[in-house]
Design brief:
This protein is mainly alpha-helical. It has a single domain (about 30-205), classed as Glutaredoxin (3-Layer(aba) Sandwich), CATH 3.40.30. It is about 55% helix and about 10% strand. It has a 3-stranded mixed β-sheet with strand order 2-1-5, with helices on both faces. The protein has a two-stranded antiparallel ribbon with strand order 3-4. It is globular, with a radius of gyration of 19 Å. Belongs to the GILT family. This is PBP domain-containing protein.
């Protein structure tokens, strides 16, 4: 009886974790959209402390989308960014490189991890070191960076509008295209755990043994 009681308690505990998290996989996959800003310390910490680990563990089940925009304001006078000119320049670089890496998610994640790891090559040093590391054409990238105001900027601005209005935090984290402030803030500190429990609900993933 005691063993049966413990099993029931454990099962209820697992269910309660899922209910609290609220995150669910869709056909065995989870889409994560991350709104970033190149000079933002919270973005740096999230990518290096949360996303890197989660992707190394569960990357095969994840669809990652980065939106390098942050709190950028774009009007007739140009771009104004939260962390000043370096932030605007590096955000634009991120948009250009990510666009050239479409279809290669591993390279996109590797690139953004590089950019948000000290010494933060684009924002902190104004270099193309991380772009070079993922093998994009630097002449093409340089041309892209120096010709802003195109569809890449429009797409990032439009994609950021609703999440920033609702969450008002950088980085914003959106799962499966559904804005949820509670899930966003939970992901800042326990992304891997959230993903594990969500995937474990689908037996086809083979994921189990999750911890908080």
């Amino acid at each position: 009886m005691a063993t049966k009681h413990l099993v029931l308690v454990a099962a209820c505990f697992m269910l309660s974790l899922t209910a609290v998290s609220g995150l669910q996989a869709v056909n065995g996959r989870i889409k994560i959209t991350i709104g970033t800003a190149s000079g933002c310390g919270d973005t740096m910490r999230f990518i290096t402390n949360q996303l890197s680990e989660a992707y190394s563990l569960y990357g095969q089940f994840l669809d990652i989308e980065f939106v390098p925009w942050g709190r950028t304001v774009w009007n007739d006078n140009g771009f104004t960014c939260q962390f000043l000119e370096n932030d605007c320049w590096a955000n634009r670089l991120h948009r250009c490189v990510l666009d050239r890496l479409k279809g290669n998610q591993d390279a996109q994640v590797h690139y953004m991890t590089c950019e948000f790891t000290s010494p933060y090559p684009a924002f902190g040093q104004g270099t193309y070191i991380c772009a070079q590391a993922v093998g994009v054409n630097l002449i093409d990238i340089d041309h892209c960076v120096n010709n802003p105001g195109d569809e890449l900027d429009v797409a990032a601005r439009d994609a950021s509008a609703a999440p920033m209005q609702a969450i008002n935090f950088v980085p914003y984290i959106v799962f499966n295209d559904a804005i949820d402030t509670d899930l966003h803030f939970a992901a800042l500190s326990r992304l891997s755990s959230m993903i594990c429990f969500a995937l474990s609900e689908d037996p086809a993933t083979g994921i189990s043994s999750c911890t908080i």
